[in-house]
Design goal:
Radius of gyration: 25 Å
Structural class: mainly alpha
Shape: globular
Bound molecules: uridine-diphosphate-N-acetylglucosamine, magnesium ion
Strand content: 5-15%
Oligomer: single chain
Largest sheet: 3 strands, antiparallel
Distance between the termini: 53 Å
Length: about 475
């Protein structure tokens, strides 16, 4: 029998086989022209195996360092390691770094006339003035590195937050700073700040509107929103990672539609979508490994580090891949959760430190958690809460004299429990996976099909798919 922080014999063998397969494919890519897509796939298989084992091994080390949290929805509230997203994030960063030579292998071979071919004669004038090189795609490398830099900054913030528990209003702007390198590269590399105007409005506004510098503010807002939005839709086992995996898989599906043979090559959007796939594949690898330990009943928590890191991966691919508006369509549950939370975030309604659903030890089920009104709400807030209650958008409890004493916390998880009644934690997590998948699939459908009703064309030329 294996103890809780070692790998069992079967697990060890399976992981070794996975690593073997990954390394085998990776080595093979060098026989062709580097095949970056296949290299990214095999690196993510290796990243899965490494993350899976490291998360298991490092549990006691994290607990010893004080990185632990109480699982509130269990009868005994056991303490388990927290901040395991940091392991995930580090493995991810290392995979992205290892991937650089693969992504640029073809160009490196061309630039050094044969993969570091040492017998190329260096002539006198070349020693003086350098050699004539194949035009290496520095621009693409800059995009890639700026994404990496933004991710590194956000991971530092995440770890700081998990160690020191920073208040959200203090940390909310940090992702905006982290996005600066990316926005600069966007400015130099792409620079498009125009948005297409829907056909019915073109008569008044023209075909495009140039948003100018506000487009950069919009992109910084995306970089602030995505990490925080994932962190707010949290609190039950597995949900942070599961929602991120669903979003990543849907993005991957969307990217794949821009590749040959679905979309004929060359197509102007192919490169941006390839870029996005390179960032998403290892993310899916490390997240799937973390989910194995974090799904109900959790053996580890992911911490804010994972939520910020995951959100920033999406912001990076959305911004540098030039599809930030499509990205937002995949964030519909998170956007709803944020808007629905605003009365509590802005303290119109008291906001307790935790708003996660409440565990009922006698039934073993979760129900909506509540805010208790020790001082009765103002008449305006009371009317608003009454209206929400009538519309079944919140649950309000009153005393005999008709005063509000409790109102359910305004999060999507609690609202779902108000609608569906109490349920088990893993069932609620599955429901959220379904909501995320359905909303995301509908979002992509709207993006590629219904948008044709109000725009002249889809940039992917969808008719090739059907
Ligand atoms: C955010 C939410 C907060 C929610 C918390 C849950 C906002 C503004 N903040 O805060 O309302 O309660 O996430 O993660 O919306 N935990 C569990 N089971 C889980 C996951 C977490 O019990 O499956 C508990 C653990 O005690 C863990 C703690 O939540 O230690 C982590 O909370 P933390 O990530 O620090 O909360 P915030 O991100 O600040
Ligand atoms: Mg959190």
């Amino acid at each position: 029998m294996s103890s809780s922080n070692t790998l069992s014999r079967t697990e060890t063998w399976r992981l070794l086989v996975l690593v073997g397969v990954g390394v085998g494919i990776l080595v093979n890519t060098f026989q062709g022209d580097g095949a970056p897509l296949i290299a990214a796939g095999s690196l993510s298989i290796i990243a899965f195996a490494v993350t899976f084992s490291m998360v298991r091994w490092l549990g006691p080390v994290f607990i010893k360092a004080g990185l632990k949290g109480k699982d509130m929805a269990k009868p005994r509230k056991p303490e388990i390691p927290e901040t395991m997203g940091a392991v995930c994030a580090v493995v991810y960063l290392l995979s992205l770094i290892v991937f650089i030579p693969f992504a640029f292998y073809k160009d490196i071979v061309a630039a050094t006339s044969g993969g570091g071919n040492r017998d190329v004669v260096i002539e006198d004038q070349h020693i003086e003035h350098g050699r004539y090189l194949h035009r290496f795609p520095h621009g693409k490398l800059a995009s890639y590195l700026s994404g990496l830099l933004s991710l590194q900054s956000i991971i530092i913030l995440g770890i700081g937050d998990d160690l020191l528990d920073i208040r959200w209003r203090h940390k909310v702007l940090i992702p905006a700073f982290a996005s600066i390198p990316m926005l600069i590269v966007y400015f130099v590399d792409f620079g498009v700040t125009q948005v297409v105007v829907p056909v019915p409005l073109q008569r008044y506004l023209g075909d495009f509107i140039d948003l100018g510098s506000s487009y950069y503010l919009y992109m910084a807002a995306i970089a602030i929103f995505c990490p925080n939005a994932i962190n707010m839709l949290a609190g039950i086992n597995g949900i942070e990672v599961a929602q991120s995996l669903v979003i990543a898989l849907l993005l991957l599906f969307n990217d794949a539609m821009y590749l040959a043979p679905v979309t004929p090559y060359p197509h102007p959007a192919t490169d941006s979508h390839l870029f996005s796939i390179y960032f998403l594949l290892p993310f899916i690898g490390v997240s799937a490994a973390l989910l194995c330990h974090n799904w109900y009943p959790s053996k580890v928590f992911v911490g804010d580090t994972y939520c910020y890191f995951a959100g920033m991966v999406f912001a990076v691919v959305g911004i540098l891949g030039h599809f930030s508006k499509t990205l937002l369509l995949l964030f519909v549950p998170q956007i709803f959760n944020f808007l629905y939370s605003t009365p509590q975030l802005f303290h119109l309604i008291p906001c307790p430190r935790h708003r996660l659903p409440k565990f009922n030890a006698s039934t073993g089920l979760l129900d909506a958690s509540v805010t208790e009104w020790t001082i009765p709400p103002s008449p305006l807030v009371a009317t608003a809460l009454d209206t929400l209650h009538t519309l079944r958008l919140a649950r309000v409890t009153k005393n005999e004299s008709g005063q509000i004493i409790e109102s359910s916390n305004l999060t999507l998880l609690n609202l779902w429990l108000v609608w569906m009644g109490p349920m088990r934690e893993d069932r609620l997590a599955w429901h959220m996976v379904a909501v995320q998948t359905l909303c995301g699939a509908a979002g992509l459908f709207v993006r590629h099909r219904l948008a044709l009703l109000v725009f002249n064309h889809d940039n992917r030329m969808f008719q090739y798919l059907v």
